[in-house]
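Retry 2 of 3 after timeout on previous attempt. Resubmitting structure tokens to design endpoint.
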């Protein structure tokens, strides 16, 4: 019997790609020809699943045609755009992933497939609860002033369970109202005047706008110092694309930055952009996905997953902070969003603009070789000066015992406070201390599921693993020797620096900007607003403060540990350390008052720190490029990492040896390993690594795919493939 066609005889065979980790598309019967990209529901075993038509054929001579099942139905709505279908195949081939796994990232909003649903909202009625609780109070406060929200939104925004909302509905405190299926989007005012640009900014903007008007693909780098007004320049390019009726995507490496830039976009274009990231409610994700698909959304500001939205008329992609490591997706389909953004723009015949004050070496080399165009903004906007950077040698001027800030930094903090300005202390370590050990027996508190130390978070009275999320109370007794009150924290985190500031400058108002202390995006907005409103004197932060933020009254930056990251065994260690320290230094002196930066270090002679002090960025990058060229490393060579994991150490070693016996022996390819991963256990799974090094002219993906297809490993073993790896843990 043929499924799902209401008795009509099917004539066509279609290949349907399913959002599953399968080798390819499955054949189904359809009554009519269906265009590639058409969303359909099909049977798979006893399940009913949503997939996408990948190819269509009227060929009736397919073997076993009579055994094919028919699609159930075609889902209402537009087919996926042709360039998105090609993008899925391109990403799958490049990352050595199954196309279905990539498609899953496109179809991650099932509510957006099919006709929009009628929504029910709730607002406050006239009946008050017979018993008031803190949870009920939060709901009532949320819906004050006549707000109407859906049940799920109330639960999420008020941080209450669905049963609390249900109880308020049943007692009449919440009254239902019909809502539009989806709230409309306000169009950006593309004719709204922007700020007055400097001559240098004007030249850069005109150049980029001309690229947008060509209606073809190109890749450009905006290379500008921190505070040079790069955002206003690419806003002009975005305005040009919007004037042509195109859609634009502005990508950000962190969710926290999307919040900052949403405000900047709305001030410039008098209407909000759509946002896209993991923090959105299901209803808002549906609204944005549909709006992008039907063209109601003109501009999206989003994280890396925004690349997989179904833009119907994409005209420009901007990748801000293009150097940032957060653009690398490290689980599932492993991809680099910056590189995939260039491909997405190419398939849409649209320009891609990369933006950074500290370009990645890959982007820097591509620009120098002429593969990318480049516009430069060498000066800060409005006459502000680049901050003065100096080093404080901890070998000759160490802090007092038990403290982490030496007298140079303390003097600068006090001078800045007396001048009425703000300071930033930067330390890229969350929590209170990175290690806790017993002073009696030396036992170190480790994660039970990972090969890593537990980090003390004293403000929360918890120990946490920053790899798997394990959390436990700080114990009173040593788990090994049983001694009481003998556990001591070793090394500083941001919480410990705040504690030291409270002790040494008690009058200073303090705040922490770290992901552990931000419960939501609204909390982030509140902290940033309090800094801008001068309610904070000394800000202590991790890398979250290093990018995108503009604090007008911040004139001093002190880096607690400038050596952090310099000694990592990673080909990008020096590059990343330079980028991070340069970016955080750029937070100082962004307005008329000059800025000052002081780096505490045990290695003042290190080339990275000397490059920061001298301002010799290009010379530093050229040296890095030459070392990479000589070693055949990216961007002059190719790397692919294989991470083999299993529940047991013996299992993973056996699987790795099995893979090693089948390794490719091809000219231009070298396979290193297997070796135990630096983080040998993560989430209870033991890990080993291979590193494949290849010449640029070698099709390394084909070699790796053939290698893995020739080896059969047990089902308990997982093999993760990382093309162009960014970390080696």
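Retry 2 succeeded. Sequence:
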């Amino acid at each position: 019997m043929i499924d799902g066609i209401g008795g009509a005889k099917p004539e066509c065979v279609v290949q349907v790609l399913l959002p599953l980790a399968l080798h390819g598309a499955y054949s189904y019967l359809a009554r009519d020809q269906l265009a590639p990209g058409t969303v359909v529901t099909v049977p798979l075993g006893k399940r009913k699943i949503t997939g996408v038509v990948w190819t269509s054929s009227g060929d009736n001579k397919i073997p076993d045609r009579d055994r094919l099942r028919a699609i159930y139905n075609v889902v209402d709505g537009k087919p996926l755009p042709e360039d998105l279908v090609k993008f899925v195949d391109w990403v799958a081939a490049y990352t050595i992933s199954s196309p279905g796994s990539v498609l899953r990232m496109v179809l991650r909003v099932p509510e957006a497939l099919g006709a929009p649903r009628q929504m029910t909202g709730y607002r406050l009625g006239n009946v008050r609860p017979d018993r008031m609780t803190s949870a009920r109070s939060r709901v009532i406060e949320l819906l004050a002033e006549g707000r109407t929200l859906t049940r799920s939104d109330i639960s999420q925004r008020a941080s209450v369970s669905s049963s609390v909302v249900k109880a308020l509905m049943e007692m009449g405190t919440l009254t239902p109202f019909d809502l539009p299926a989806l709230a409309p989007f306000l169009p950006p005012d593309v004719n709204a005047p922007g700020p007055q640009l400097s001559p240098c900014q004007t030249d850069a903007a005109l150049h980029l706008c001309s690229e947008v008007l060509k209606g073809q693909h190109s890749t450009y780098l905006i290379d500008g110092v921190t505070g040079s007004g790069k955002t206003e320049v690419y806003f002009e390019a975005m305005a040009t694309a919007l004037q042509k009726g195109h859609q634009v995507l502005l990508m950000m490496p962190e969710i926290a930055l999307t919040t900052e830039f949403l405000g900047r976009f709305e001030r410039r274009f008098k209407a909000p952009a759509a946002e896209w990231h993991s923090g959105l409610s299901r209803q808002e994700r549906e609204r944005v996905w549909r709006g992008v698909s039907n063209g109601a959304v003109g501009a999206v500001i989003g994280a890396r997953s925004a690349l997989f939205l179904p833009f119907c008329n994409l005209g420009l992609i901007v990748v801000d902070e293009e150097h940032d490591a957060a653009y690398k997706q490290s689980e599932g389909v492993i991809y680099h969003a910056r590189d995939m953004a260039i491909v997405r723009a190419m398939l849409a015949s649209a320009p891609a603009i990369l933006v950074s004050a500290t370009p990645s070496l890959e982007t820097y080399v591509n620009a120098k070789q002429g593969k990318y165009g480049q516009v430069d903004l060498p000066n800060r906007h409005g006459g502000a000066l680049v901050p003065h950077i100096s080093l404080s040698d901890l070998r000759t001027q160490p802090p007092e015992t038990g403290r982490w800030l030496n007298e140079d930094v303390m003097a600068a903090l006090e001078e800045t406070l007396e001048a009425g300005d703000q300071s930033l202390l930067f330390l890229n370590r969350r929590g209170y201390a990175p290690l806790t050990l017993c002073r009696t027996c030396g036992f170190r508190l480790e994660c039970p599921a990972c090969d890593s130390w537990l980090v003390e978070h004293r403000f929360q009275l918890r120990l946490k693993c920053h790899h798997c999320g394990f959390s436990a109370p700080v114990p009173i007794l040593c788990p090994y020797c049983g001694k009481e009150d003998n556990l001591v924290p070793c090394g500083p985190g941001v919480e410990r620096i705040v504690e030291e500031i409270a002790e040494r400058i008690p009058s200073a108002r303090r705040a922490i900007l770290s992901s552990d202390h931000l419960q939501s995006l609204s909390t982030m907005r509140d902290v940033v607003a309090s800094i801008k409103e001068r309610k904070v004197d000394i800000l202590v932060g991790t890398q979250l403060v290093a990018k995108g933020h503009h604090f007008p009254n911040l004139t001093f930056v002190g880096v607690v540990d400038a050596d952090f990251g310099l000694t990592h065994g990673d080909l990008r260690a020096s590059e990343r350390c330079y980028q991070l320290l340069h970016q955080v230094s750029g937070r100082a002196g962004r307005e008329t008052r000059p800025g000052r930066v002081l780096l505490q270090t045990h290695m003042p002679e290190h080339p990275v720190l000397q490059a920061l002090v001298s301002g010799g960025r290009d010379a530093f990058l050229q040296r890095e490029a030459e070392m990479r060229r000589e070693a055949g490393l990216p961007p002059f060579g190719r790397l692919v990492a294989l991470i083999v994991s299993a529940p047991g150490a013996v299992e993973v070693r056996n699987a790795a040896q099995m893979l090693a016996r089948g390794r490719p022996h091809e000219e231009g390819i070298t396979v290193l390993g297997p070796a135990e991963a630096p983080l040998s256990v993560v989430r209870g799974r033991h890990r080993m690594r291979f590193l494949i090094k290849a010449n640029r002219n070698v099709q390394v993906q084909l070699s790796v795919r053939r290698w893995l297809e020739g080896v059969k490993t047990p089902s308990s073993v997982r093999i993760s493939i990382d093309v162009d790896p960014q970390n080696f843990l």
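Attempt log closed. The radius of gyration is 28 Å.
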